[in-house]
Amino acid sequence: MMLFEEALENNRRDITLAMMNNYPKLLPKFMADKDKVSPLVEIILNMNLELYSLKRQEQNFEKVLRSIKEAFFKHGEKEPLRSCVKAMRFCSTESQGDLQDCAHTKLKELEYELITKLKSAIKQVEGGDDDYSFLVNLKSVYELQLAKCVPIETLFEDFVRILEGNRNMSGFTIKERCNCSR
Fold first, then answer.
1. Which one is predicted more confidently, 142 or 166?
2. Is there a contact between 44 and 91 (Cβ–Cβ < 8 Å)?
3. Neighbours of 95 (CB within 10 A)
4. Number of other CB atoms surrounding residue 124 within 10 Å
5. Is the dihedral of CA 148, 78, 65, 47 positive or negative?
6. Tens digits of per-residue pLDDT, 128-160?
7. Which of 35, 67, 90, 175 is most buried, with most CB under 10 Å away?
8. What would the DSSP string read from start to end of the chain?
9. What number is the average pLDDT over the span 148-177?
10. What is the distance between the alpha carbons of residues 37 and 44, in angstroms, rounded to a whole number?
11. How high does pLDDT run on average in the chain?
């Protein structure tokens, strides 16, 4: 059993050392390809993040996080979204020190930007525009919510207004609508 764990750790080290300089260049190159982006993003799950600090490659680590965040917003499909969230969570939990702080910051930026995009999409829907952006951002929030709590309570009233605009709910009060699921 010890040999297996040692071999696994050696492989993680080798993957990390081989990818450390190339990974930040590789991600943007294939980011638009929805079939390649998920496995490419998930490469980081097999890396030893501590080596980024030991080899003074913090800038490359930050570039990787920026690319993963960009991939998250570029794709609206389930698999790329989940891969990006999984990778960001991995980086924020498996790294240490400055790398962990950087990963937490990037994850918070992703969350904040996503909520901002969702609010903007809600305004577009209320203004009579197409609801595509709203649906894509709502799906992205859902995928992020599966991994971490995203505070969306401020959006509840906006959701109710959208529903009122698209469904005949005029006979109910907001309190009755909120209690209907209980």
1. 142
2. yes
3. 20
4. 15
5. positive
6. 888 889 899 999 999 999 998 887 777 777 777
7. 67
8. -HHHHHHHHHHHHHHHHHHTTTHHHHHHHHTT-HHHHHHHHGGGGGS-THHHHHTT-HHHHHHHHHHHHHHHHH--SHHHHHHHHHHHHHHHHH--HHHHHHHHHHHHHHHHHHHHHHHHHHHHHHTT--SHHHHHHHHHHHHHHHHS----GGGHHHHHHHHHHHS--TTS-HHHHHHTT-
9. 66
10. 12
11. 86
Handedness of CA 126, 81, 73, 33 (dihedral sign): negative
Q: What is the pLDDT of residues 100-130, one digit of tens each?
A: 999 999 999 999 999 999 989 988 888 888 8
Give me 149's structure tokens. 């709590």
Distance CA 171, CA 25 (A): 56
Among 169, 162, 103, smallest CA distance to 137 is for 162
Q: Which residue has the higher pLDDT, 142 or 169?
A: 142
Distance CA 37, CA 114 (A): 19
What average pLDDT does the segment 66-94 reach? Answer: 95
In the chain the first and final C-alpha atoms are separated, in Å, by 50
Distance CA 103, CA 94 (A): 10
